[in-house]
Amino acid sequence: MSFIHYVQKEINCKIVYYGPGLGGKTTNLQYVYNTTPGHMKGRMISLATETERTLFFDFMPLEMGEIKGFKVRLHLYTVPGQVFYNASRKLILRGVDGVIFVADSQEERFDANIEAIYNLKENLAEENYDIMELPYVLQLNKRDLPSAMERDVLAKELNIKGEKVFDAIACQGVGVTETLKEASKQVLMYLRKTQLERGV
Amino acid sequence: MEIYSDGMKDALAGLLGKTGAKTAMLVSREGYNVVEVGDVSYFNTTALAALVAGAFSATREMARMVGEKGFSILLQQGESRHIHISLIQDLLMLVVIFSDNESIGRVRYEARKTSMILADQLAEKGTRTHLESRLEETDFGENAMNLIDRVFQT
Ligand SMILES: Nc1nc2c(ncn2[C@@H]2O[C@H](COP(=O)(O)OP(=O)(O)OP(=O)(O)O)[C@@H](O)[C@H]2O)c(=O)[nH]1
Ligand SMILES: [Mg+2]
Question: Residue A169 falls within a domain, yes or no?
């Protein structure tokens, strides 16, 4: 859950990139990191295996600037997609404010996408989150590959609640910013709805 | 959820005074940095908070797997700097960074005392609200959209 620090005047929110192994979650975050100006970002941390597979998480803070005198900071995380790291995924999901699901468009990864969505639903339910309420964006990544499934078919199959869908080629930066922008909007609007005082 | 209270900073400052530690921080379960006291110039506090929360939640799961409820303390000893992390009521982590090897015992003792003070403060929280600043929803949406458009130029 987002954390509004009234004394230090800060708003902190947590967005998690979720999805099947090798789908491009770390690539998304890396691109955001590389394109964010120095004064707006903290260190990026990657807890990964020697072969660059995410082991625990990647993390970077994004300092967005101020709203009504409050500094807004997004805490961006990726989870490890590999099936057997579920314990780690559950830990990273704690306190989440929004999820970006990075799907792998390749036909041979279709089942892996479905499995990851199912796994997300299950893990969120265990933490008493309602996925229908939670800010959520679907990204169809690897649109450049020849075995990518037809866009509309994939979007329909993976959609869980009429969420916005973005096409992406994360390794070229295509669609990365658009996806995060939409997630940020949803997260801040959700925070407004659930945590702010009504004006008089 | 409001997890900050005004006495927290004083409690941490007291701990630094008694132990000679370099830095003390409170980190939330989600990995947010709640309070920091002492020298924070030599590392990135946001990144450390994320790692502390990750490390602590990982050890908690390990504890559960071997039939423990949780480990309450995590101590990392380096050559010249050490990190002592303790859990406060499953809500906050108290992080103490110190460099004098001799003071491990003192840090442990004072951290335990400070944890109790902080736990009391947290228990009182229900009745207290912060009036230093407020954040109302008026104009928030519009301000947020403008900010997002500025940050993410597409
Ligand atoms: N062709 C193509 N390759 C991509 C794209 N996005 C990412 N990749 C590549 O896919 C591989 C895996 O990407 P990662 O970002 O490490 O995947 P991940 O989702 O973080 O994987 P885990 O950490 O194991 O969960 C890397 O070699 C990337 O360069 C894309 O849009 N197109
Ligand atoms: Mg990864």
Answer: yes
